[in-house]
UniProtKB/TrEMBL annotation:
<keyword id="KW-0812">Transmembrane</keyword>
<feature type="transmembrane region" description="Helical">
    <location>
        <begin position="461"/>
        <end position="481"/>
    </location>
</feature>
<keyword id="KW-1133">Transmembrane helix</keyword>
<keyword id="KW-0472">Membrane</keyword>
<feature type="transmembrane region" description="Helical">
    <location>
        <begin position="378"/>
        <end position="395"/>
    </location>
</feature>
<protein>
    <submittedName>
        <fullName>Oxidoreductase</fullName>
    </submittedName>
</protein>
Length: 487
């Protein structure tokens, strides 16, 4: 192995019973070994059992490292090391400590089984991080401290990790414990497609203030048995949970409070178990599916330009559109556990206006007033019922026309059954109960019957009612016509 290192050749110890001492590997990587002139030294080791602790803390490693099919008896130490790249494939490790690691190239942890925490806090990777097919678990024995300590139950601690390229944890990636990416930065895409994250005691994925220049995808079989927390995350393109399963453990199945994303795909495989919080989310487009809307949905402060309903679909197949009525969208808004707040209704109405659906926008704003009415005291609720019934809070002014016709019919019937007396018999026009009632109902307009005939008996009260109703209802009708003409 010593001579192979200098030539960059691979050493395969398959079938050998001899272990490899970790201190030998550390000596090779930190400047030892026979490096042939003109050759490219590299550590390429397969199918070995590595005993002892591979201690490379603060080391400067100038050669590529590729270890495959090996098992480690102790946790490798790469804290504050600087290296070209690191590739571990099909390996068994009791953990990995690489806080403040600096790699110029890629970090590969492919199809590995890691039974203790993987510590990548504050690390910098100049290439791509690949964790595909690996199984991580927090099974570290007590009395094996990590400084600064990692929260118990954390399988992957990558807070403030910086990755210039992509971060891939898909194709069978499993984490039995929390995946922490708080404050991490990914220059490309973050892919969790098909991954399984299990932490029933709390957050399966904790990534507050995560920054992803491209897309964060957790599609096609992604499963989170625990909370998914992405508060104040910044994602340049898609945040995609298409065909995913979210089973919140503590409180939130999904928390996107304060996040900024290009588009959000919430076309889940099934209804999430737990609350979904989109408060403060800023998105250009939200894709969702009425069949998987959560029982509790917080939309306070959520802003978007478009709402598009799509159904889940198999991988690589287009997602079919789903028709959603305004009644369904109103039910969507009512799922807020915080009770009535006006902003979600105004935001939905703005979406309908932007789409040219004025009738739907008015329906949403009318429902906003009705929900507000339920929060008022009894006098306010009674007045609200009156205004709603007469003109629909100004969003159904055609109701005023119906009421005008009803009052006109009432006046016509009253003046027919109890005729009015002529004020001046010599000049009075022919008695016409319908025109007299219409003359009282229409303000400003004079048909010559109001001043010619004087109501008597109970019709005096009917006449007063017609005058009052005429002013109120005619104003509402004119306002509705003006709004229509302005459009």
């Amino acid at each position: 192995m010593w001579s192979a290192f200098g030539r960059g050749a691979e050493v395969d110890l398959r079938g050998s019973t001899h272990p490899v001492r970790a201190e030998v590997l550390a000596e090779l990587l930190t400047g030892g070994g026979d490096r042939a002139a003109g050759s490219r030294a590299a550590l390429r080791l397969r199918s070995a059992r590595i005993v002892g602790r591979l201690d490379l803390r603060h080391a400067e490693i100038t050669v590529p490292v590729s270890i495959g099919g090996c098992s480690f008896t102790d946790v490798p130490e790469l804290t504050e090391a600087r290296a070209v790249n690191l590739a571990l494939t099909d390996c068994d490790l009791p953990g990995l400590r690489a806080r403040l690691l600096h790699l110029r190239g890629d970090l590969v942890l492919l199809n590995c089984v890691v039974t203790g925490p993987v510590d990548l806090r504050d690390a910098h990777v100049g290439g791509t991080v690949t964790l595909n097919g690996s199984r991580l678990a927090d099974l570290a024995p007590a009395g094996d401290p990590v400084f600064p300590p990692i929260d118990p139950g954390t399988a992957l601690a990558a807070g403030r990790l910086s990755v210039t390229g992509n971060l891939h944890a898909r194709q069978g990636f499993v984490a039995d414990g929390q995946v922490w990416l708080g404050g991490a930065t990914v220059g490309g895409n973050l892919a969790l497609d098909g991954a399984t994250l299990r932490h029933p005691a709390g957050a399966a994925l904790s990534a507050d203030r995560l920054t992803v220049a491209g897309s964060l995808t957790a599609r096609w079989g992604f499963t989170a048995d625990g909370d998914v927390l992405l508060m104040h995350a910044q994602i340049g393109s898609q945040l995609n949970f298409h065909n995913a399963r979210l089973q919140g453990a503590a409180m939130f199945a999904l928390h996107l409070g304060g996040a900024r994303v290009g588009s959000v795909w919430l076309t889940l495989a099934e209804r999430p178990a737990g609350r979904v919080r989109l408060s403060g989310l800023q998105a250009d487009t939200i894709f969702d599916d009425p069949a998987t809307w959560p029982a509790e949905l917080d939309l306070i402060g959520c802003t978007y330009r478009l709402l598009i309903a799509r159904a889940p679909s198999p991988p690589r197949e287009p997602s079919p559109p789903v028709p959603v009525t305004v009644r369904q969208r109103l039910d969507w808004l009512r799922r807020s556990p915080e009770g009535y707040t006006p902003q979600p209704y105004e935001q939905l109405a703005e979406h309908y206006r932007r789409s040219g659906q004025e009738a739907e926008a008015r329906r949403v704003l009318l429902e906003r007033q009705r929900r507000r009415r339920a929060t008022l005291r009894v006098p306010g609720r009674l007045f609200g019922v009156l205004v709603d019934g007469l003109v629909g809070y100004g969003y159904r002014t055609w109701l005023a026309g119906i009421w005008l016709l009803a009052f006109w019919a009432l006046g016509t019937l009253s003046f027919t059954l109890d005729p009015s007396a002529a004020r001046n018999p010599a000049e009075a026009p022919e008695r016409n109960a319908a025109l007299q009632a219409l003359d009282l109902l229409l303000p400003i307009v004079n048909l010559g019957h109001d001043n010619a005939w004087k109501p008597v008996g109970g019709t005096e009260y009917v006449a007063a009612l017609l005058v009052l109703a005429g002013w109120v209802l005619s104003t509402a009708v004119v306002a509705g016509l003006t709004r229509t003409l302005n459009r």
